[in-house]
Amino acid sequence: MYVYAEIIPKIAPGLIVTIEILLAASFLALIVAFIAGLGRISKFTIIRKLIAIYVELFRGTSLLVQLFWIFFALPAFGLQLSPFFAGVVALGLNYGAYASEVVRSTILAIPHGQTEAAIALNMTRWQRMRLVILPQALRMMLPGFGNISIELLKGTSLVSLITLTDLTYKGLMIQNTNISYTFPVFIVLLILYFIIALPLIIAVRKLEKYASKGVAQA
Amino acid sequence: MTWDWNFAIQIFPEIASAIWVVIGITFGAYIFSLIFGLVLTFLRRSSFKPLSMLTYGFIEFIRSTPPLVQLFFVFFALPSLGISFDKYTAGILTLGIHYSTYLSEVYRSGIESVPKGQWEAAKAMNFTKTQTWINIILPQAIPPVIPMLGNYLLVLFKETPILMAIGVGEFLQKAQLIGAEHFKYLEPITIVGILFLLLSYPSAIFINKLEQRSKLTFGERKH
Amino acid sequence: MGALEKDLIMIRNSKRQPAETLVSYENVTKKFGETEVLKGINLEIKRGEKVALIGPSGSGKTTIIRMLMTLEKPTSGIITIGGEPLWHKKTASGKLVQADEKHLRKMRSDIGMVFQHFNLFPHMTILRNVTEAPIHVLGLSKEEAHARAVDMLTKVGLGDKLDAYPSQLSGGQKQRVAIARAVVMHPKVMLFDEPTSALDPELVGEVLQVIKDLAKKTDMAMILVTHEMDFARDVADRVVFLHDGQIEEQGTPQELFENPKSERLQAFLKRFLKR
Question: In total, how many domains does chain C have?
């Protein structure tokens, strides 16, 4: 249909922004996930407690509220982030908290015999983690990470509400200029998001199979 | 400290008053998704291949696309097909359909964990399909997944602020209005965050306890 | 810390140990919560000695070796290796404090362990399982570690399976790899925690043979927790019978199996030996 052909080039810049934010936020979330996930099993109580507070805070409140807080409320402390940065920080910290639980639970799921064998071979704590535990845990983390990345993709649409010109924002702008575009625009939006999600969905299916091999049975 | 206690105390009642809207939408959408989720599970299990494939596609599509865009679709786009909803109904419908796709997966895993022997025993005793489902399968499938179902209630609750995009008067919307009026956003939005924490944290702990009890009663399940 | 003070006094008062004593347990107890699993163990292992620990399940035999491997901490008492305390260390001023990880690591290098459930690293090949610790812990070069590993794996009969993964091996093969992995670290004491209890009966013999060869050909001390009585009789220089957290009786295999003195040992043996 003619209308659809008109919409796509107009919406394309938004697609770029969405992908940029997806990649940046995923990267931040991954880093946060490992720091927080490993920190939660640290031997220092204070680190464990602080990270637990962070995780519960971000999992217990709404993503949109966190986004708005970072964008609208932080300026009261003198910190005005651009919409892009606010989006990356909010998405990264939020999904990082969820991903940190994946990190933590997969590490704890490795049978204790593996740790004992590593101790018996006189490995240091860090060697145990690096050579024995993490390689096995990482395999198991992948499906969880994959699912979270799909959620993250859906979450990027919220940045349109803080005026970041992502896919959703562009869609809203287009339907504002011409009311007859409303129906096609939102159909296109949904399809585009689905197309971006598709490789992630397929990857998760594959990863779920891969994750169950090569891990010690308890 | 840039936090203004007087302001915070002054605006708290107005923000908190949105709780009725929030509760109404959360439970309205949740009940819808509990029911429609089960419908989707059955449609997915249909022996009529096209129907089950269509349902599968529908579930994957809705699950993998942003609820915000779905909301805009329901509220802005559907009227051009002649289907109009007020913002509250649009909100409940969108969230309800969105989360019914998740719940249908939860139901599915519960049903698939019922041992095959149960189906065979029901057949041997000559139960009808309906009787099998209502008397034998569902009573075994649902209790173990109740914690998961409860978990999604919480997730749904935390998703309600997106409705502010179509002007629904929930917590965040009230906070934004106050913030825009007074040019002070710190206190209103923080209060919303605290409200969410107060409401969701104890519930999360409760659901955790339910999950421990469920594991004891029903054993470990693979999702 | 009343327990630490008691231990301090004990170390100061303990008699000089004979030069060949490698490991000693002095009045070692272990409590898990309310349950007292070990009620005062006094045991000495000499250099190169092969000791079998036998006894009913729950008697505490596994706990004894796990404490030596630093997997469990004694509730009270002193364990020494080569005359030096394991769970305590002397500070510069001569005071005794709880051992830190650095001290434990230093002492641990003399101990190796083979587990009942093998605990091989599933994400590594057999060869890598055996070379990993020599490279990262002993600091050997890749070539040296490789050579040691291939030599050891060939000795246990798995020289043709170097690139296989643990999941592709039988239980008996896995345990033989586990033995190679531990021996390649050249410990002074090797601990075996019921090495064949998790194996199908027809695979037990190949593992016992490897351990017998080890006992004959190396001068490592060995502590074997086992239910295989014939094997214990063949390999051990000394057999220690544990009951309910205490050493009931010990002696040479001939003494214990042919002339059990305590009633409990007699009852225990009736269940295990066919004679």
Answer: 1
B153 is written with which tokens?
């209630």
What is the DSSP code (8-state) at residue C236?
-
The CA-based angle B3-B7-B10, given to 5 degrees, is 145
Q: Report d(CA A93, CA A90) in Å as an integer.
A: 5
pLDDT at B80: 86
Q: What is the pLDDT of residues A123-144, one digit of tens each?
A: 999 999 999 999 999 999 999 9
Give the C-alpha distances (Å, rounded to integers) separating C31 from C60, C75, C249: 11, 6, 22
Nearest chain A CA: its distance from C274 CA (Å): 34
Q: Is B160 helix (H, G, I), strand (E, B) or coil?
A: helix
Task: Please check whether residue B9 lies inside any domain of the structure.
Answer: no
- Residue B40, domain extent: 19-218
Q: Higher-confidence residue: A3 or B147?
A: B147
pLDDT at site C241: 93
The domain spans of chain A are: 2-211
CB within 8 Å: A116 and C71 = yes
Local confidence band at A218 (pLDDT 50, 70, 90 cut-offs):
very low
A63-86, pLDDT tens digit by residue? 999 999 999 999 999 899 999 999
CA distance B139 to chain A (A): 29
CA nearest to A72 within chain B: B185
CB burial readout B37-54, b (16+ within 10 A) else e: bbebbebbeeeeeeeeee
Chains linked to B by 3 or more Cβ pairs within 8 Å:
A
pLDDT value at residue B175: 93
Measured N-to-C along each axis, helices A182-211 and A167-177 cross at an angle, to the nearest 10 degrees, of: 160
The pLDDT value recorded for residue C275 is 46
Among C157, C166, C71, CA closest to C117: C166
Which CATH number is B26's domain given? 1.10.3720.10
Selected residues 138-197 of chain B with any CB under 8 Å from a CB in chain A: 158-162, 164-165, 171-172, 175-176, 179, 184-186, 189-190, 192-193, 196-197
User: Does C123 sit within 8 Å of A214, measured CB to CB?
Assistant: yes
Q: Which residues contact B5 (CB under 8 A, 6 or more apart)?
A: none
Residue C16: predicted pLDDT = 47
CB C175 within 8 A of CB C199: yes
Closest CB to B66: pick one of A60, A76, A157. A157
Predicted pLDDT of residue B222: 46
As a whole number, the mean pLDDT across chain C is: 89
**CATH number for C20:** 3.40.50.300
Q: Which chains touch C (3 or more CB pairs under 8 A)?
A: A
Name the residue among C210, C215, C196, C201 with its Cα closest to residue C116: C196
Residues C218-239 pLDDT 10s: 989 999 999 888 899 999 999 9
Query: What pLDDT shows up at residue C3?
Result: 61
What's the pTM?
A: 0.85
CA distance A189 to A4: 11
CATH node for A2-211? 1.10.3720.10
Chain C residues lying within 8 Å of A123, measured CB to CB: 133, 136-137
What residue of C is the nearest CA neighbor of A217? C122
Q: Is B27 on the interface with A (CB under 8 A)?
A: no
B185 CA to centre of own chain: 29
Mention every residue, 6+ apart, whose C-beta is less than 8 A from residue C256: C239, C241, C249, C250, C265
> Lowest mean pLDDT: which of A99-103, A201-205, C6-10, C196-200?
C6-10
Nearest to A60 among B69, B70, B204 (CB): B204
Per-residue model confidence (pLDDT) at position C80: 93
Are B193 and A56 in contact (CB < 8 Å)? no
Give the mean pLDDT of B69-94.
93
CB pairs under 8 A between A and C: 64
Residue at B158 is within a domain: yes
